[in-house]
Write a structure and sequence with these properties.
The complex is a heterodimer of chains A (406) and B (550).
Chain A lengths: L1 H15 L12 H21 L4 H13 L3 H14 L4 H13 L3 H14 L4 H11 L5 H13 L9 H13 L3 H14 L4 H13 L3 H14 L4 H13 L3 H14 L4 H13 L3 H14 L4 H12 L5 H14 L4 H14 L3 H14 L4 H13 L3 H22 L3
Helix pairs in contact in A: 2-3, 3-4, 3-5, 4-5, 5-6, 5-7, 7-8, 7-9, 9-10, 9-11, 10-11, 11-12, 11-13, 12-13, 13-14, 13-15, 14-15, 15-16, 15-17, 16-17, 17-18, 18-19, 19-20, 19-21, 20-21, 21-22
Chain B lengths: L1 H21 L6 E4 L24 E4 L8 E4 L18 E5 L5 E3 L1 H4 L7 E7 L8 E6 L4 E5 L5 E3 L1 H4 L13 E7 L8 E6 L11 E3 L2 E3 L9 E2 L1 E5 L5 E3 L10 E2 L1 E7 L8 E6 L5 E5 L5 E3 L1 H4 L15 E4 L8 E4 L9 E4 L5 E3 L6 H5 L4 E7 L8 E6 L18 E7 L2 E4 L14 E7 L8 E6 L5 E5 L6 E8 L11 E5 L4 E5 L14 E6 L3 E8 L5 E8 L2 E6 L2
Parallel strand pairs in B: 33-39
Antiparallel strand pairs in B: 1-32, 2-3, 3-4, 4-5, 6-7, 7-8, 8-9, 10-11, 11-15, 12-13, 14-17, 15-16, 18-19, 19-20, 20-21, 22-23, 23-24, 24-25, 26-27, 27-28, 28-29, 30-31, 31-32, 33-36, 34-35, 34-37, 37-38
The chains are: A mainly alpha (406), B mainly beta (550).
């Protein structure tokens, strides 16, 4: 039971990790919700008959955690560890609940139990460290992160995935130093996976560390000399670092391996976009779109290129809409569509539809909140504008609470 | 000589062409004789962020002779932040009235200390002489104008030296004098940039060579507000006013009555963080409302590298609009004030976006350069990164001028505005004012490790103008914050009294109006900060008009 639970926890965590280069097909949220409700009803019935049914307690708690209802989940896991105190997976979920409720004391207690019961379980410690990332409990977070990192030397290649995920958590939590250490550990454990290099290099580039980012990509290119993807990513890193000329060098190297690769053309289009050579960017991205008509990213950048031109609004809208058909989850695409309808067409009704989608998908996208508030006002919907402003302020307050340790 | 004539003829030809293509009177500048001065950044192999930020300049009449003088602040050695040589001295140049200037720094006692960035001019003690606030790295200075050509450093006595309780010594880049509580005394709003310490300066590189780090490598800080107690001292009201709650990386501030309620509000441009809009709550406090009013972000969706800002009414609907500068590829945002609803960004639709994409703008101003009755836009440009490093070819930039075509449309007329506009430089500061009282607004420019420049406005259109010098009696003596409505036979215009314009710079206190072909102002209405309303009828054009608050 103990191992099964820990394994289930780990598998569910890894499967929830986003794929770096492939977008997963969107599942029907409605179907998922219905299935979840059915499961909850079943579990409630089990618990009515036997309030101490450990499996039901755990499953019910896990569902609550997935829904973000930490207040309801915490008593279930407390009961579980009361019945079975040596179960590290349950303590891990209890830690999640404590983090969700900003309960530093319970978080510290749960962390100690996980460490005592499973001192070398990388899956649990990586997961726990991930949950703690950015939640304003610095001592517990620092301890758990270091514990997870200390396990790296004893790991096999498969451990690299945990460190990659750990890096993503700390990157999201805007802790680039810890994220970089975790990504480096992933590379050290399994140097044969390209994406580990990409993640670290992108992080460094975003932090303004262009030199180290280029070095990481140079080692990736040395390790994967025939990989078009690696060279395209190397160019992309240079572009992010503000070096379009260097990006162009990498793009040309990639083109020498596979001149008709849509990825190679996409990079060239992005470079031309940065250089404000819009007609060339458009021509290149249109060519890429013909070669890979189902690539949402290419349509996204084609939209970006068209919107920079005086007469390109309609074409930009066309590409952004196509991008959304292919990837309905990208908040920035909704934002740009909203922005075009707002600023160029002054069609606030349509703009609102897209902007609502953008803020639902990415509440942290502050610019979308601003534009949505303005769109409501233009439509005379002042109550909605005020509600949206309140929603934005709540997000800001929540973030401030997280960023300010107690 | 013949070559020069040819160039002038060519420029005039381009100006004429611009007139034909844009339908507006040409705007023409030429490089005028400027005092010898170089903005020193304390250049070092190791890169320190303040070195990218120097360049504050002010035009103001320090001796009340009716002529605008020039004051420039300067850098220092790095990382010591010391003015250990004459080359780092701040300078005051007296306008001799014949196109020349005399260096009076030593007599005035204005050589300064430390690494200075910005300057704000205002008569804080209402004695009739303009005082100087200098914003700098870990050190600000308030100079009291003694009225006899000398100044006294009164920073400590004024209570302006206390470090921030949380962030310690702050790095200020600019300021504005504003009577936020309308008690007749100018208060001081100081724009603070980031937490910085030479000891912990990160090391960054570009194209394989050392270069300045991006702002995201530094932590933001709050701005400061000091209430004028009326006895030569100030009280730090940053916390109680609500200003301190907003953390930013402030670059510039514009004070204007954005809501049209008679109370001054404040817009702060932030570097890589959302802009701030502090709305005056009329009780000594401010409410941050940039998101609510639609000016926190631009159409681009991300926080831009906000630089300079000016706020004036570009469409003469009585509401001040906002013109902001930003980094290369970010455009120079133009926000049109719609009143209660908020602001509408018109950067793209106005024609400003396309031309400004290729520029990194710093100090900027909204002025009617051709006196046609419509306010134009000027931005001093130069990239941020090391001009001697890997990007030396792209760092110096030409400045940019947009002519106002009316109906919220602007045209980039830089290439037809004279060879002075074709000169590239790492420009930073720009102060606007009529140096020779000919009714045309001139521009004084600074360049990093480059000479001070005076762009003399030589626009040829036979348009009329009016310069208004306000003297407050119940209001602050400068009349800062006074809103002015001007009516001619065929137009209505709005402007307001302020000196803080653009980035780190301070401009002519006098309010300038271009009148087009109209030689008579039918009505001139002044809405003083004290609440006093004043109206003047049938005012002749082409004069510097002094208006005393009744």
């Amino acid at each position: 039971m103990k191992l099964q639970l820990a394994l289930a926890l780990a598998v569910s965590w890894l499967s929830s990790a986003d794929s770096y280069s492939q977008s997963q097909p969107a599942r029907s949220a409605q179907n998922e919700q219905t299935a979840q409700e059915v499961t909850k009803q079943r579990l409630l019935q089990v618990l009515e008959q036997d309030p101490n049914d450990k499996k039901a307690l755990f499953e019910m708690g896990r569902l609550m955690v997935e829904e973000g209802d930490f207040v309801s989940a915490a008593p279930l896991f407390r009961k579980y560890v009361g019945l079975s105190p040596a179960e590290p997976g349950a303590w891990a979920y209890l830690l999640r609940c404590a983090v969700g409720q900003h309960d530093a004391r319970e978080a510290a207690d749960a962390q100690r139990q996980i460490e005592r019961l499973a001192p070398t379980n990388l899956a649990l410690h990586a997961q726990a460290a991930c949950w703690l990332a950015g939640y304003g409990i610095p001592e517990v977070t620092g301890h758990e992160f270091e514990l997870a990192m200390s396990l790296a030397p004893s790991q096999t290649r498969s451990g690299a995935l945990w460190y990659s995920r750990l890096g993503q958590c700390y990157e999201s939590a805007q802790d680039p130093n810890r994220a970089a250490r975790a990504f480096q550990a992933a590379i050290d454990l399994d140097p044969d996976i390209e994406t580990h290099y990409f993640r670290l290099a992108h992080l460094l580039a975003r932090e303004g560390k262009a030199g180290p980012a280029s070095e990481i990509m140079a080692s990736a290119v040395a390790h994967f000399p025939r990989s078009v993807t690696t060279r395209v990513e190397a160019g992309s890193i240079e572009l992010e670092s503000g070096n379009p000329e260097r990006a162009l060098e990498k793009q040309q190297q990639a083109a020498s391996l596979h001149p008709k690769s849509p990825g190679v053309l996409l990079l060239l289009g992005r470079i031309r976009l940065t250089q404000r050579r819009y007609p060339e960017a458009i021509a290149t991205l249109e060519q890429a779109a013909k070669l890979a008509p189902a690539d949402a990213g290419i349509h996204f950048y084609a939209g970006q290129a068209w919107m920079k031109t005086e007469q390109g609004t309609e074409k930009a809208i066309e590409h952004f809409k196509r991008s959304l058909e292919l990837d309905a989850n990208r908040a920035s695409t909704y934002y740009w569509l909203g922005s075009l309808y707002f600023h160029r067409d002054h069609d606030y009704r349509v703009a609102v539809q897209y902007l609502e989608q953008a803020v639902d998908r990415a509440p942290e996208l502050e610019a979308a909140h601003q534009m949505l508030i303005q769109a409501y006002k233009r439509l005379g919907e002042d109550a909605k504008a005020a509600a949206q402003l309140r929603r934005y302020e709540e997000i800001v307050q929540q973030r401030a609470k997280v960023e300010t340790p107690e | 000589m013949r070559g020069l004539q040819l160039v002038r003829a060519l420029v005039l030809g381009l100006g004429l062409l611009a007139t034909l293509t844009t339908g507006v009177d040409p705007i023409q500048f030429e490089d005028g004789p400027a005092p010898r001065f170089v903005t020193r950044t304390g250049r070092t192999t190791r890169k320190y962020l303040p070195q990218t930020m120097a360049g504050g300049v002010a035009v103001f009449d320090y001796n009340n002779d009716g002529l605008l003088d020039i004051y420039v602040v300067n850098g220092a050695t790095m990382p010591a932040l010391l003015k250990d040589g004459a080359q780092y001295s701040d300078r005051l140049f007296r306008n001799n009235g014949d196109g020349t200037f005399t260096d009076v720094t030593d007599t005035a006692g204005l050589a300064g200390q430390g690494f200075n960035i910005g300057v704000a001019i205002g008569d804080y003690d209402n004695d009739g002489f303009e005082d100087i606030f200098v914003a700098g790295v870990h050190r600000n200075t308030l100079y009291h104008n003694n009225g006899d050509g000398t100044f006294t450093d009164v920073t400590e006595r004024a209570g302006l030296v206390r470090p921030d309780p949380q962030y310690g010594k702050l790095w200020a880049v600019g300021a504005t004098w504003v009577d936020y509580d309308r008690d007749g005394l100018l208060d001081l709003f100081v724009v603070n940039y980031v937490q910085w310490d030479a000891k912990t300066e990160p090391v960054c590189e570009k194209g394989g060579l050392p270069d300045y780090c991006y702002p995201r490598a530094y932590t933001g800080v709050p701005n400061s507000v000091f209430h004028n107690n009326g006895d030569g001292t100030f009280t730090d009201v940053s916390a109680v006013s609500g200003i301190r709650r907003s953390i930013g990386k402030g670059m510039a501030v514009a004070a204007a009555d954005f809501e049209g309620d008679g109370w001054p509000d404040l817009f702060v441009s932030n570097d890589t963080l959302p802009n701030s809009l502090f709305l005056n709550q009329r009780n000594g406090t401010f409410k941050e409302a940039a998101i609510e009013k639609g000016v926190a972000f631009t159409e681009n969706g991300a926080a831009i590298s906000g630089m300079g800002v000016d706020a004036r009414d570009i469409d003469n609907d009585s509401l001040p609009d906002i013109f902001e500068t930003a980094l290369l590829n970010e455009t120079m945002p133009l926000f049109r004030n719609l009143g209660q609803v908020g602001f509408e960004e018109i950067t793209f639709s106005s024609g400003v976006a396309h031309a400004s994409l290729a520029k990194t703008g710093w100090s900027n101003g909204i002025y009617d350069f051709n006196n046609d009755g419509r306010k134009d836009l000027f931005a001093a440009c130069g990239h941020v990164m090391d001009a001697q490093g890997s990007l030396h070819a792209t760092v110096p930039q030409t400045n940019i001028i947009f002519a106002n075509l009316g109906k919220e449309q602007f045209a980039d007329v830089s290439t037809s505005a004279g060879v002075a506009l074709a000169r590239r430089g790492v420009h930073r500061g720009a102060a606007f004012g009529d140096l020779d009282n000919d009714g045309r607004v001139d521009v004084v420019l600074t360049e990093l490790d480059g000479p001070l420049r005076i762009l003399r406005n030589v626009s040829l259109a036979p348009n009329h103008w009016l310069l208004i010098r306000t003297i407050g009696t119940k209001s602050n003596r400068d009349g800062i914050g006074t809103r002015i409505r001007l009516v001619t036979e065929d137009s209505v215009q709005y402007n307001a009294v302020s000196t803080s314009v653009g980035y780190a710079s301070s401009s002519d206190l006098r309010v300038h109006f271009g009148l087009g072909r109209r030689a008579l102002v039918q009505e001139l209405e002044l809405f003083w900060p004290s609440g006093t309303y004043q109206v003047l009828k049938n005012v002749k054009a082409d004069q510097v008009l002094t208006v005393r608050e009744p």
